[in-house]
Amino acid sequence: MTIDADNTFVVTPHPNRSRARRHGRRRAYVLVAVLALAALATSLGVSFLESNATAMPEAMNYRAQVRAQYIADSGAAMAAHFLAYPPTTVPVGQYWTGQASVSLDGSPDLLDVAVTQSKTDPNRYEVLSVGRAKDPDGSVRAKRLITADVVAPVSDKWTFSQALLDRDVLNVISRVFITGSVHANGNIDISSGSSISGSTTSTGNIRKELTLGIFTNVCLFAQFSCGTPSVRMPTGAAARYQNYLLNGRYHSAHDYNQYSRNTLNKPNADSLNAINMSATNPGRLISYTGGSLTLRANSGNVRLNGGLVVSAGDLILADSGLYEIIAEEGFPALVLAGNVRAGSGNATLRVTGPVLCTGDLDFDNKNNVTFEVTGTLIKTGTFANFRNDSTFNITWTSARSWLWDVEAAPKPFTVLSWREK
């Protein structure tokens, strides 16, 4: 404070006090700013927590849905696999019907699969696959359902345009008469006293007997073709016909060993003919694995409806008489790992359907033996020991010159429709 000349008091601010007041106001501003920032941060934090409070459950739900989808997909794939390759627990002639509560990886997640055959088309199936993804406590978090319609593959067919097919060198000896064409994956010799009405083809040379023991090459003649490509043929492996696959379904030949005998006569054939094999053995194949099988006509002529599969020996005609074997269409009448042998004269073997023989066709010099094949003969062995009063006749016909290719590997089922829920 100062006093001027007329005794007037003049108040002068103290410099230190003014500076203190300015510093106080600045601190107040900073406090307000900090509080505002804290409020903003709190607001943002609360907003973040509110927006992300369900993120983890949603992620878990999504993961469960994906896993349930994979499980259901696996069930449909499992059904397609087991329809093509049934487990050993599936009875012959049946199909895999599914399984419930399957854990694919040991986790709590479960799969249910059900397979139902169509009532109108036996080659079509409906697959229902349900995948359930579970929490550790066992509760179901997600579920997916797939319904698929699948169709069994149609088996391939062998169609033969020849009456006689030989896997190797072919000797058409005297008293062999062929109505139809012939092919051999090797050289062919045609003896006098035999006949072939159709064309003859060979991967090698073809010779024809002009007179006793003298053969000439006939490759230049119109009826004969030499050096042609080889023809693919069934192997005739007996095991393929003992348990066979037809149109996606497995079947088994009827086991003749169960009767504990190595002969087959008229009463035996009649009993076999009376058996309904349509469900488990549509080819009516009769399998014998106990060595050679002897056909007996001592109690009357033998007529067998079906095919014989002899895998470990010969087929022997023991008595005079008539033996008839009539195959189901598309199946062989005979599948032989060994020979056909005549054990008696005056015997006739009449076969309707393809014949697959890896052994010889041996008449054993018995008198008046006749072997007739209506269809296609596919062989590896030779014609042997024919007398002049015996004949071997092969007659090609389209209805009896084809086979289901039961030797082929299984083919996958085809998915016709796929629905998810």
Structural notes for this entry:
- With 421 residues, the protein is of the alpha/beta class.
- The protein folds into 3 domains: 2-51; 64-155 and 411-420, Pantoate--beta-alanine Ligase, Chain: A,domain 2; 158-404, no CATH class.
- 19% of the residues lie in helices and 37% in strands.
- The chain is built from 4 helices and 38 strands.
- A 10-stranded parallel beta sheet has the order 17-14-11-8-34-31-28-25-22-20, with no helix packed on it. Strands 13-10-36-33-30-27-24 form a 7-stranded parallel beta sheet.
- The mean pLDDT is 90.
Fraction of helical residues: 10-25%
What count of helical segments does DSSP give?
Answer: 4
The largest sheet is: 10 strands, parallel
- Count of domains: 3
The strand order across the widest sheet is 17-14-11-8-34-31-28-25-22-20
What kind of assembly state do the chains in view correspond to?
single chain
Name the beta content range: 35-45%
Distance between the termini: 95 Å
Dominant shape: elongated
How confident is the prediction overall: mean pLDDT? Answer: 90
Overall structural class, as computed from helix and strand content, comes to alpha/beta
- Beta strand count: 38
Task: Determine Rg (CA atoms, Å).
Answer: 43 Å
